[in-house]
Amino acid sequence: MTTVLLVRHGLTATTGHVLTGWTPGIPLDDRGQAQAAALAARLAPLALAAIVSSPLERCMQTAAAIAVGRDGQQVLTDDRVGECQYGDWTGQPLKRLAGERLWRVVQAHPSAVTFPGGESMPDMQHRAVAAVRDWNARLGQDATYLICSHGDVIKAIVADSLGLHLDQLQRIQADPCSLTVIRYTPLRPFLVRMNDRGGGVDDLMPRVGPGSHGQGGKRDHGDASDGAVGGGSGGADPAAMVSGTTSNQADGHPVTSGRRQSADTRG
After folding, report:
1. By residue range, what is the domain housing residue 124?
2. Is the dihedral of CA 263, 238, 225, 202 positive or negative?
3. Is the domain of 144 the same as that of 255?
């Protein structure tokens, strides 16, 4: 199964105030740079087969921070994960746009929206999902890789992964420098995390199959396409579940591995 980490860019001076869109020359501010550095530190233990970014500066800076310390790994750009083309709305204050009749349609019925002078939201979703699928095929089923993109683009990809109609887009949240993780299998995608702003990455590390040795072993794909009946063990080691090391003690207190799982999966 291919694992894609979707990262929204860090904060800029205009985030939450102006619909920046494809406006050039909008860098991360000090807050955004700190967010990117913190996320890079969280992801440091995780090998990435590729780091892909929207070509816009705020994403490139976020992706570059993640690439630092990865033996010269380059950031690759893909216009298909660039921001939605908002057309005439680009650069406008959000407070002013909220008074437009189209704003209510964006909120309640985004599948019907084509921005004046720009693209439709279904077209944005189609190109973004196509990019993810293409990178999945290019990198292979054992790959874990990262895409740095934008809020609406990430929400559209998440909606597709859950089989949701695009009109459910606004029920999904993608905060600045948040981490969303989707695992793609031959049968279906699995949304592993959404809008995570503080969890560890232990549960994202490759699992080595039985009979293999160390980091060079092959992943176990035995149940990669199947949903976990009963809810599954989350990030816990299946072998540890058999031996009971993640179950509660008789006094009701979780043992060490149970506490680690809780810490690693918090959002």
Report:
1. 2-204
2. positive
3. no
